[in-house]
Amino acid sequence: MYLACLKKKYLFSALLGAMAVVIRQTNIIWMLFVACSGVIDITMAHQKDSVEVDDSKASNKGTNLSALNTSVNVSSNLKRRKSRGNSKANQHIFYPSNTSSASQTLGLLHEIQAIVLSSWRIKWELLVSFSPFFFVLLAFVAFLLWNGSVVLGAKEAHAVSPHFAQIMYFSIVSALFAAPLHFTIGHALDLFQSFWKNRLLGFLLLFLASIASLLSVHFFSIAHPYLLADNRHYTFYLWKKIIKFHWSMKYLLVPFYVYSWLSIFRLLGKTRRRIWTLVYFFATSAVLIPAPLIEFRYYTIPFYFFILHSSINDSQSWLLIGILYTVLNAFTMTMFLFRPFHWDHEPGVQRFIW
After folding, report:
1. Which cellular compartments is it found in (predicted)?
2. Which of 44, 73, 152, 303 shows its CA 20 to 30 Å from the CA of 62?
3. Cα 121 off chain centre by
4. Rounded to two decimals, what is the model's pTM?
């Protein structure tokens, strides 16, 4: 779906999105994210083309003015009296700069403004190109009205909940599963320097992120009954042995949550626009926050998007990530195959799994 959208095959992308929604209803969020990503790419490309055309016109105008000034100077050699008047008039001529504003890094507000203005200019093109996504969205709304909920099956067990701590768990899990990218001295220094360049704004954002994280883990940490009842999954032990090890543990983990999110933003910011990163965060939040159950499979799609757009340029990082995943897979298979156990209240062999 995402690849088709990047290749501007919007109808095919929307069809794949419809299939994804049939498989899992919350994939409607990722379909909308893909559509938004396509809109961002088109509008910013249109904005860049418009700026380049304007700069080209300005450059041609400046060239014409220079040619006119040269002819005036040549004629002044023949008519010295007129040359004095022409030279005074030419002092007020403005020669436009050929520096393109598209080469400058736009701030988030400037990007939003550019997207809004460009979207309005090409509104009919966008409407035609992305109408398949709109029809899928309408079909999903019709499903919600018919079903009464986004959930199929046991609706009471998967009720929508304000589980804001979920995005905190996602950040640290994503950072750990890509540890060679996040937890290095060079990356930590790079992150610190990016804050130090604009200390006031940087530390204000750091303070607000810390407060939001503390509020999330204090008021919106949810222990789903399925999480507490099933000791076959590793999330049961992570919750029991780490988060609930002591009452203060969920607060002590806040700095790691904040660092992980800031690191994700920093890595994505090297390859993607700020507005894309913001939409990615909103999409991830829209998928994870309503989910009351802590499940690693909920994190796979946003993690894939993060890895896809992370700037991994050195072979050492790839090697370390490969070793990390090999060790994790070996551990998972070993525990599943060679460490079975039994429940007293239910017959049969039980096995550990993610």
Report:
1. Endoplasmic reticulum membrane
2. 44
3. 26
4. 0.81
